[in-house]
């Protein structure tokens, strides 16, 4: 994100276009054969390359009577996975893009920023960079998903002609992001500084927190204090989840696509889709009121019965939070 911010801020040109790419099924399709080839190309010692070759060999996946040999992919959260992914992916960042195009990446997420004083130049450079990335991806045994690739115009509203592998790329006017504090609470992951502090206290003799249960309680208490004092962003999430401890121990805490929309406020309700010119009006199709997330959760007649059931189940009102 910092790289992207700098790329956009540094742009002293009239037009700036940010394009984000999606790699199809990225981590599952990373070819082990290609990774080993890249390690050899990078002159990594034979000893280490052989060690990794051994680690990746004779791996099988079985189900019922089916038994297949694995040749690609990494389990997410594996220790070696991100490093081997970087080995495979690194050459994308070595591409020599047209002037004014910068690349930025994290794990399988990839973005380019194209800057120029003329619209045609931005369009031409962005299209060329996309085509270069597409070819390099294929060389890496990976495929881009053009339908999930999006562009964002940073400073001016005009129409663009961007194509990736023949598919027209959608250009948006707004990029919605979720605050870090909100994602941490939703996922139940305490901020890293609090986790580090917890480990430190547990490690220090006579801190009084050698017991992990006690240390955890302290971490959650501190986290709650931070959450309570958070005033800039994440107010919607905070309204729905005022109490972290209750939330992280809640048995209904499964986060699917729609639930995430509700918790983050990243709604696709018509009040928003109308604002970005995707729908003709901002009305709720069930009752005719302005269709927002707040409307759907707390007042639309469509969810009246469910709200009633939740109230009975919880033994309290659900007008303000979940
Ligand atoms: Zn409604």
Please describe what this structure looks like.
With 322 residues, this protein is an alpha+beta fold. The protein has 15 helices and nine strands. The chain has helices at 2-9, 26-29, 32-41, 46-55, 81-89, 119-139, 180-187, 192-203, 212-229, 235-240, 244-248, 257-264, 270-275, 293-299, 304-314, and strands spanning 15-21, 60-63, 66-69, 101-106, 109-116, 150-153, 163-164, 167-168, 170-172. The chain has a five-stranded mixed beta sheet, sandwiched between helices. The two termini are 31 Å apart. Residues 284, 286-287, 289, 295, 300, 302 line the site of zinc ion. Residues 284, 286-287, 289, 295, 300, 302 line the site of zinc ion (ZN).
Itemize the secondary structure elements and their pairings:
Layout lengths: L1 H8 L5 E7 L4 H4 L2 H10 L4 H10 L4 E4 L2 E4 L11 H9 L11 E6 L2 E8 L2 H21 L10 E4 L9 E2 L2 E2 L1 E3 L7 H8 L4 H12 L8 H18 L5 H6 L3 H5 L8 H8 L5 H6 L17 H7 L4 H11 L8
Parallel strand pairs: 6-9
Antiparallel strand pairs: 1-5, 1-6, 2-3, 4-5, 7-8
Helix pairs in contact: 3-4, 3-5, 8-9
The main pleated sheet reads as: 5 strands, mixed
Radius of gyration: 24 Å
* Structural class determined from secondary elements: alpha+beta
The termini sit apart by 31 Å
The residue-averaged pLDDT reads: 84
User: How much helical structure, as a percent, in the residues?
Assistant: 40-55%
Q: What spatial order of strands do you see in the largest sheet? A: 4-5-1-6-9
Low-confidence regions:
none
Q: List how many beta strands DSSP finds.
A: 9
Ligands (ions, cofactors included): zinc ion
How much strand? 5-15%
Annotation field: number of helices: 15
Choose one word for the global shape. globular
**Helix-strand pattern:** HEHHHEEHEEHEEEEHHHHHHHHH
Pfam families: RVT_1
Protein name: Reverse transcriptase domain-containing protein
Domain Reverse transcriptase: 1-169
InterPro entries: RT_dom (IPR000477)
């Amino acid at each position: 994100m910092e790289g992207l911010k700098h790329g956009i801020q540094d742009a002293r040109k009239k037009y700036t276009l940010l394009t984000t790419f999606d790699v199809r099924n990225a981590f599952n399709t990373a070819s082990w054969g290609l990774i080993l080839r890249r390690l050899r190309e990078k002159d990594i010692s034979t000893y280490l390359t052989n060690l990794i070759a051994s680690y990746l060999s004779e791996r099988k996946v079985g189900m019922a009577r089916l038994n297949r040999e694995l040749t690609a992919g990494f389990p997410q959260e594996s220790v070696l996975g991100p490093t081997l992914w970087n080995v495979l992916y690194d050459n994308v960042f070595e591409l020599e893009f047209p002037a004014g195009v910068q690349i930025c990446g994290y794990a399988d997420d990839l973005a380019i920023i194209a800057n120029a004083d003329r619209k045609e130049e931005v369009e031409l450079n962005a299209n060329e960079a996309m085509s270069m990335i597409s070819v390099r991806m294929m060389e890496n045994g990976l495929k881009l998903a053009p339908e999930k690739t999006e562009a964002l115009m940073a400073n001016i509203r005009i129409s663009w002609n961007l194509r990736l592998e023949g598919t027209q790329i959608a250009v948006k006017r707004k990029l919605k992001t979720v605050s870090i504090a909100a994602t941490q609470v939703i996922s139940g992951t305490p901020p890293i500084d609090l986790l580090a502090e917890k480990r430190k206290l547990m490690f220090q003799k006579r801190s009084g927190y050698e017991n992990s249960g006690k240390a955890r309680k302290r971490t959650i208490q501190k986290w709650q204090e931070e959450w309570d004092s958070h005033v800039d962003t994440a107010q919607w999430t905070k309204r729905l989840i005022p109490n972290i401890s209750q939330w992280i121990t809640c048995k209904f805490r499964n986060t699917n696509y729609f639930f995430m929309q509700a918790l983050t406020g990243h709604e696709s309700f018509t009040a928003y889709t109308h604002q970005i010119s995707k729908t003709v009006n901002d009305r709720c199709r069930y009752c005719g009121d302005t269709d927002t997330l707040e409307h759907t959760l707390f007042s639309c007649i469509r969810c009246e019965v469910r709200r009633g059931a939740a109230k009975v189940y919880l033994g309290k009102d659900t007008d303000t939070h979940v």
